[in-house]
Amino acid sequence: xxxxxxxxSYPPIDPINFDLIIVGTALSESVIAAAAxxxxxxxxxxxxxxxxxSHFASLSLHDLSSxxxxxxxxxAAASASTDSDDVxxxxxxxxxxxxxxxxxxxxxxxxxxxxxxFSIDLGGPRALFSADKTIDLLLKSGxxxxxxxxxxxxxxxxxxxxxxxxxxxxxxxxxxxxxxSLREKNQLMRFFKxxxxxxxxxxxxxxxxxxxxxxxxxxxxxxxxxPKIKSILLYAIAMVDYDQDxxxxxxxxxxxxxxxxxxAQYSSSxxxxxxxxxxxxxPIYGEGELPQAFCRRAAVKGCIYVLRMPVVSLLMDKVTGxxxxxxxxxxxxxxxHQLILDxxxxxPSPLTLSASDFPSERLQMLSQRDIKGLVARxxxxxxxxxxxxxxxxxxxxxxxxxxxEQVTSIKALQIxxxxxxxxxxxxxxxxxxxxxxxxxxxxxxxxAMNALLTxxxxxxxxxxxxxxxxSEDTKPIVIWSAFYIQKLITSKxxxxxxxxxxxxxxxxxxLLDAAQKLFGQMYPNEEFFPKATPPDDPTDEDDxxxxxxDS
Amino acid sequence: xxxxxxKSLQAKLVLxxxxxxxxxxxxxxxxxxxxSEYQESTIGAAFFTQVLSLNEATVKFDIWDTAGQERYxxxxxxxYRGAAAAIVVYDxxxxxxxxxxxKWVREVQRQANSSLTMLLVANKADLEDxxxxxxxxxxxxxxxxxxxxxxxxxxxxxxxxxxxxEIGKRLAKAKSSHETGMRLHSxxxxxxxxxxxxx
Lengths: 551, 199
Known about the structure:
CATH superfamily of chain B: P-loop containing nucleotide triphosphate hydrolases
Strand content of chain B: 15-25%
Shape of chain A: globular
CATH superfamily of the domain at 17-95 and 285-370 and 492-531 in chain A: FAD/NAD(P)-binding domain
Oligomer: heterodimer
CATH topology of the domain at 17-95 and 285-370 and 492-531 in chain A: FAD/NAD(P)-binding domain
Largest sheet of chain A: 8 strands, mixed
Structural class of chain B: alpha/beta
Mean pLDDT of chain B: 83
CATH class of chain B: Alpha Beta
Shape of chain B: globular
CATH architecture of chain B: 3-Layer(aba) Sandwich
Strand order of the largest sheet of chain B: 2-3-1-4-5-6
Strand content of chain A: 15-25%
CATH architecture of the domain at 17-95 and 285-370 and 492-531 in chain A: 3-Layer(bba) Sandwich
């Protein structure tokens, strides 16, 4: 999208009054645009970038590199003609990603030639559970008709000294596991029977209220489950981030009731769609398709789209201090009842503002950004798979599986060329983990990569060859890698709202909950995607098969 | 599936061109046989399907309209993904729309896959008195760029069916090569039982 084009002049936008202006086309913003259009709101949806998706975009290799390494500088505010009744407050843009480290190894010519064949997720690793609420929302909103998916072939958990083990997708798979003793299998049998009864509405027998409120890890211990199974349930199925056995540092201690919910979601995800053998799905062309599908949904309902349109300032009423509108880089002023901003925008502290008589307390809120933590993200490109015969797979490295001080789990996802995100014969691997600082995050990711991949020392290809011949099973060699640290900022509902940054989770459930909540706060009397959306394509209804499947 | 042992294929078709060139009118004429003098700017529909039976094959078209996202040059890459054919439309009464159509042709060449079939269509041929773009100009540009060229009128239906038949015939000969996956559908969901099933 960013390849050279004719000199660009900013078009005037017509009309100039809207119910809602949204800046940024990340997933949450796009979902809100689609939801608000569906209930008849007039919306202008802007993005300063030349591409859709903001922090959830999928980009070519070149675009990704330049996005990570050269944060765009905020455009100079156009014509400071302030003869209006508005107070003009310039927006500050703060990149949510930092500490980017990009390395290209021996194949830079190949990568240069094929840059546009890559479609790399900025917010990866991401996938959808077949039975999670994202799928329901895609169907309910009508966005699903613009998307195609493939199943992730396999899910693995990394075990210290043993490498990759399958995450079981059925009871049969657990009972075929030769590493478990008969006694352990019987304990598992008891556990599954209990969970099954608990989830079955027709059954009386339930897990006790008391047990539902204790940490899931304690409940699993009470059920005498072997450590290996406990670890799979907690980190590879419930996908918790922090070491559940270390209550001092654990920031997300999972309760039994939430653990059971995760088990239920996983269980109903497996095999929900034929042709998707596991629990996870991934969109063809990458996660950047998801915001695009919601934006198209919004456009169909009348939402106006303008890419490459930076917003430079907010317009506030001089007397009331309330939000009135925005000023574009072109100098044009636009007005709306509500505004949603991408989380990378803030405003300067009110103290530095010159308009001293302006009721500035309101601005205090917006100028303070709560950074809830950091996510370290890593991307590798390889020319072979981490597991022969498997193209697309997920991997979880539970806490302490890489080294004793590892307190968070690491999530990874390998995507191959049959998802149309990379040239034939290449693979993209995504890694992420929560962390307290950039060094810790990168150390964790590098350890995870080194466990399955060979990261060459740049400019020294001979060492790779020797490593290769020494090791028994050849690890895929990384031909390109990137690391970056992303801030975690939650959404905010004020007189100006803002959306959250991508979180550290594999799926989108929490982000969609935040989007739905924000929508409800803005429009308390409106339904979030009314059910009666008629299908655009009535002829599809006579597809008796229910699923359009190929390949 | 395939009738009479005939080849059956599904093809995504996208329309491009200036606002008001007649993209939606062409589709409505083809799909519904209707024409409206004052077709509103496209919102609300933007997705049609139509089955075309040819001697060579049965072609099911998924026709994507721009949903207005072309207005500020903000079409999503999703629009071009997996498209088997593109129709670039201009209005013969507007030189501007012809100039813009050339830009759309370059945009398609840049964005879409190389096996895509592209046609250049000069619409509103019924408005001969107001013509600003000659037939020769359009034809010459199309020839230079290896495109098929047709003058159409959504109003009189001139060449509209021919346009879609031409695309259908070309697609029947071509091979589609893009990755396909599964579409979500709410009716899917026989629960295999997952972890807890006794089977």
